[in-house]
């Protein structure tokens, strides 16, 4: 069963084409790592699946229906975490604020709502810390609460935008492990965007790599290769495997500077040049 | 605490405090209670959303409306309300585009006060009116104004009750709320219109310059001390009520301005709300939360 499908999708943001000709089909129960450089369109792809950004061309389908805002089948963890660091609200109320949050009226939970909050807190093993104020929680603990919010309403598809951002490596492994175990036990489909490939290597079924307005979906061995990544980064990429980890490096970075940096190549090249800078910077830690 | 219900005109040794022998004091206590019960809950969401500056800005804009109302001969309350609602809706519609425009906002606010000053210039009873608008004159509130405040307060609280759930969602997790079908812009506009009502009300008690003290002070203290939304909203209202009534009582005893006493109590309560955290921090080194 296809949970998320993009058919010849083209998406533009503010006149700039971010993705074009994107075709992909993600099946039920898959754990997909969504990778790509800064500004490559990871967040845009997720927001398009949520129906927040209408595609300029093509069709996006979630569980066989056109993507539309407010789809209860999707759980979403946005990239920008709005939680003010000094908020003394309890984790419980932070999660409870999401239950049926789009409905008008007072934010009073019925017994059903309270059960839902208890259920999702238990799923992420946060029942014990939920009475503590958010300000006193660690980054990893807050991440669990954000994940609990995602699970409210029993969605089938989780779109997680950079859940590992600003977490130290030990917490990163914990979050990946938690998402993977939830995915298995609840039969969820997960699209997990990340900056780095390695934390996801053991758990993801396939990788969706975006860059250069294109997207490539396949197994790690199919996608994390020099030809595919060179195409997606628009520059020559080297892939080095070392002790079970994969390093993606932009070996051609200096060469790119020589060819594009002389100043007489016009506007288009100048733009490309700046792209390569960010790819190079990123690829070093990918 | 007095209830403002009794009419002890001929019973000097009655059971109610002597300050309630005066009609203007009864009006003041009633007005302060209405305003506090609106400002507390509205302020809770204002602080939760990190929009306290918007409340401050609306009060400044309201000054122009109030002085303009003087000029054309209508009640300043309605002029104030008209301008704050218009300002609130405008800020809500502009949304994030305002976030990085502190110079532009500051200039618009200064301009609003400047226009207010100009309008006052054309009004004969300049100095008294200006002081009353800027710093409040709750002792001059008449019975008709109390009824107006009650009507406005009921509208504001009812509206807040209708949008409270999606507003809380949009305040805690804006992007998730948007994905779940909540219109962030609609929430911003509706909420700031409610804030405009609360601002116009609070300005009647403490004046446009000190609206912060009733709207933000009690709510910020409550957010420091509570972990649940419901109790937090109630405590914000209770603080606002205690500060407003306490300010009136102290003003009666000392003959100092009511607004001074309200700001003093508001500052005191907020300061005290910080104490538990400060004590805890010095007592034991807490693990730092990751950014």
Describe this structure in words.
The complex is a heterodimer of chains A (286) and B (291). With 286 residues, chain A is an alpha/beta fold. Chain A contains 9 helices and 12 strands. In chain A, helix 3 packs across helix 4, helix 4 (139-151) packs parallel to helix 5 and helix 8 packs antiparallel against helix 9 (266-283). Chain A is globular. Chain B has a domain at 18-213: Orthogonal Bundle (ABC transporter involved in vitamin B12 uptake, BtuC), CATH 1.10.3470. In chain B, helix 10 (217-225) packs across helix 11. The chains are: A alpha/beta (286), B mainly alpha (291). Chain A binds chain B through residues 47, 50-52, 69-70, 72, 74, 76-80, 82-85, 87-90, 92-94, 96-98, 100-108, 131-133, 135-140, 142, 149, 166-168, 171, and chain B through 48, 50, 161-166, 168-182, 223-230, 232, 286-287, 289-291.
Provide the descriptors you would attach to this structure in a database record:
heterodimer; A: 286 residues; alpha/beta; Rossmann fold; 6-stranded mixed sheet; 4-stranded antiparallel sheet; 9 helices; B: 291 residues; mainly alpha; ABC transporter involved in vitamin B12 uptake, BtuC; globular; disordered N terminus
């Amino acid at each position: 069963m296809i949970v998320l499908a993009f058919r010849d999708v083209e998406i533009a943001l503010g006149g700039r084409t971010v993705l074009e000709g994107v075709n992909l089909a993600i099946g039920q129960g898959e754990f997909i790592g969504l990778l790509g450089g800064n500004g490559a369109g990871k967040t845009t792809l997720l927001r398009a699946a949520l129906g927040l950004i209408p595609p300029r061309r093509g069709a996006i389908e979630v569980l066989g229906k056109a993507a539309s805002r407010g789809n209860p089948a999707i759980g979403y963890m946005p990239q920008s975490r709005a939680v003010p660091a000094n908020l003394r609200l309890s984790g419980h109320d932070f999660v409870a604020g999401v239950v049926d949050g789009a409905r008008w009226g007072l934010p009073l939970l019925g017994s059903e709502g309270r059960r839902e909050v208890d259920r999702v807190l238990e799923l992420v093993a946060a029942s014990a810390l939920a009475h503590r104020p958010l300000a006193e929680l660690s980054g990893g603990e807050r991440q669990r609460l954000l994940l609990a919010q995602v699970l409210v309403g029993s969605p089938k598809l989780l779109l997680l935008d950079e859940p590992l951002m600003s977490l130290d490596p030990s917490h990163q492994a914990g979050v990946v492990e938690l998402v993977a175990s939830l995915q298995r036990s609840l039969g969820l489909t997960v699209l997990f965007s990340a900056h780095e490939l390695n934390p996801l290597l053991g758990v993801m079924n396939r990788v969706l790599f975006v860059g250069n307005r294109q997207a490539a979906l396949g197994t790690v061995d199919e996608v994390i290769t020099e030809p595919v990544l060179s195409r997606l980064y628009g520059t020559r990429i080297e892939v080095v495997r070392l002790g079970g980890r994969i390093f993606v490096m932009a070996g051609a970075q200096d060469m790119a500077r020589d060819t594009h940096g002389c100043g007489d190549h016009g506007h288009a090249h100048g733009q490309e040049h700046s792209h390569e800078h960010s790819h190079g910077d990123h690829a070093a830690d990918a | 605490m007095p209830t403002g219900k009794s009419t002890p005109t001929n019973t000097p040794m009655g059971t109610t405090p002597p300050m309630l022998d005066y009609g203007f004091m009864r009006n003041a206590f009633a007005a302060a209670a209405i305003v506090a019960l609106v400002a507390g809950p509205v302020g809770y969401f204002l602080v939760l959303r990190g929009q306290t500056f918007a409340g401050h800005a609306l009060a400044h804009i309201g000054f122009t409306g109030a002085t303009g109302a003087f000029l054309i001969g209508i009640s300043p309350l309605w002029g104030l309300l008209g301008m704050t609602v218009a300002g609130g809706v405008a800020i809500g519609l502009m949304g994030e585009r305002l976030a990085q425009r502190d110079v532009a906002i500051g200039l618009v606010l200064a301009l609003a006060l400047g226009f207010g000053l100009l309008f006052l210039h054309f009004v004969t009873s300049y100095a008294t009116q200006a002081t009353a608008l800027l710093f409040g004159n709750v002792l001059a509130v008449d019975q008709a104004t109390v009824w107006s405040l009650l009507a406005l307060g009921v509208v504001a609280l009812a509206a807040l009750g209708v949008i409270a759930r999606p507003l809380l969602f949009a305040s805690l997790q804006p992007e998730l709320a948007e994905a779940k079908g909540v219109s962030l812009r609609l929430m911003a506009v509706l909420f700031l219109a409610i804030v405009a009502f609360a601002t116009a009300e609070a300005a009647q008690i403490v004046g446009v310059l000190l609206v912060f003290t009733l709207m933000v002070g009690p709510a910020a203290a409550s957010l420091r001390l509570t972990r649940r939304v419901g109790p937090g909203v109630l405590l914000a209202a209770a603080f606002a009520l205690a500060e407003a009534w306490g300010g009136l009582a102290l003003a009666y005893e000392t003959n100092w301005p009511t607004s001074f006493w309200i700001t003093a109590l508001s500052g005191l309560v907020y300061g005290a709300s910080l104490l538990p955290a400060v004590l805890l921090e010095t007592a034991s080194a807490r693990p730092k939360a990751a950014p």
